[in-house]
Design brief:
about 300 residues, Rossmann fold, UDP-galactose 4-epimerase, domain 1, 2 domains, six-stranded parallel β-sheet, three-stranded mixed β-sheet, about 35% helix, globular, binds NADP nicotinamide-adenine-dinucleotide phosphate, NAD(P)-bd_dom, NADP, NmrA/Isoflavone_reductase-like, NAD-dependent epimerase/dehydratase family protein
Length: about 300
């Protein structure tokens, strides 16, 4: 039986990777911070290992002794994605672990260079650690989560204004995979020894922004006016402008993902869905007919200008 340690086992993606690994019969160790242990489900093949990526390799090593594959689904800044994952990798090396899946789960961030996306840069920097490692890297690329792509942060859907905004001509296919499908594929890939040393691309559905708008109109039963915000050149200029004035990277991060999706540099290549025929990815239409319908809701409280909320 394969033993897999999952770091970030309490997160949105990690918790579902754990669920899928258990369904596939693996022995699963959840690396979990003490304060988060209560978030783990109970299962006879799931064992909590209390630890923190910032504890260092020596403290992490007992957790990975006897493990075949490490899967990381952590989230955070450089102290987690670069330094923390490096400590986990060092521990895995000492324990003789065969493979590690780092916390990428992204657009094809190896399709473009440094300086395009601040979070991709962290992941690429950590990837370099594998050059001198005995642990083989398996990277999983899936495109964008629709849970994020259609949320406020991307400034695409605006339910109040009834608009669907795009940069560029909106005709290039982009890669969209739900969080549950990402987890299902990742569990299958973690248990597939043939993925050692490979970048594995899998996807839920590929469709253009114009096609995505059609899906949104069909699912919501309402019209979404198309707003063309500018060319891709305009998008680059907007990112540069925001980088200069932003108080937080979250003011331009989503646009950094969009430019790489819309100019094609982050497109998935050699999509391997056929290697995992038992994973049946969710179509965008099915997503929007289910939990994705929440994207269409107009926020309940919208204060008009100069109107103060009543104290309750
Ligand atoms: N493609 C896309 O559109 C897209 C969108 C969003 C995210 N992602 C990617 O998906 C991956 C997972 O993201 P997520 O949204 O699932 O993250 P999340 O829900 O925030 O979960 C993060 C996990 O990391 C754990 N963690 C954080 N710091 C840690 C530390 N020092 N030591 C041990 N564990 C630590 C957290 O534990 P606690 O429970 O203790 O906090 C939690 O389990 C990331 O690589 C992210 O970039 C992709």
């Amino acid at each position: 039986m394969t033993t897999v340690l999952v770091a970030g086992a309490t997160g949105s993606v990690g918790s579902l990777i754990v669920k899928n690994l258990l369904e596939r019969g693996a022995d699963v160790r959840a690396l979990v911070r003490g304060s988060s242990k209560h978030k783990l489900p109970t299962h006879p093949r799931l064992t909590p290992y209390v630890g923190d990526l910032t504890d260092g390799a020596a403290a992490l090593q007992p957790h990975v002794n006897g493990v075949d594959v490490v899967v990381s689904a952590v989230q955070g800044g450089p102290e987690i994605i670069i330094d923390g994952q490096r400590e986990l990798l060092r521990a895995a090396e000492r324990a003789g672990v065969h493979r590690m899946i780092p916390s990428d789960f992204s657009i094809n961030l190896y399709g473009y260079g440094y300086g395009v996306n601040v979070l991709s840069d962290l992941r690429r920097t950590f990837t370099d650690e594998f050059d001198s490692s005995t642990v083989a890297r398996t990277s999983v690329s899936i495109g964008a989560f629709p849970e994020y792509l259609l949320a406020d942060v991307h400034e695409i859907l605006d339910p109040m204004a009834g608009t669907f905004s795009i940069w560029g001509d909106g005709t290039r296919p982009i890669d969209i995979t739900t969080i549950p499908d990402t987890a299902a594929y990742t569990a299958a890939i973690a248990l597939d020894p043939g993925t050692a040393g490979r970048e594995v691309h899998v996807v839920g559905q590929q469709l253009s922004m114009l096609e995505l708008r059609n899906e949104v109109e069909t699912a919501s039963g309402r019209r979404w006016n198309l707003v063309r915000k500018g060319t891709l050149r305009d998008l680059r200029a907007e990112i540069a402008r925001r980088q200069f004035t932003a108080s937080s990277m979250f003011e331009y991060l989503a646009l950094q993902y969009q430019i790489a999706m819309f100019d094609g540099t982050a497109s998935l290549r050699d999509v391997r869905n056929a290697d995992y025929p038992d994973v049946l990815p969710t179509s965008v239409a099915a997503y929007l007919a289910g939990s994705g319908a929440a994207h269409f809701a107009v926020p309940e409280t919208n204060w008009r200008q100069n109107e103060w909320p009543t104290a309750v």
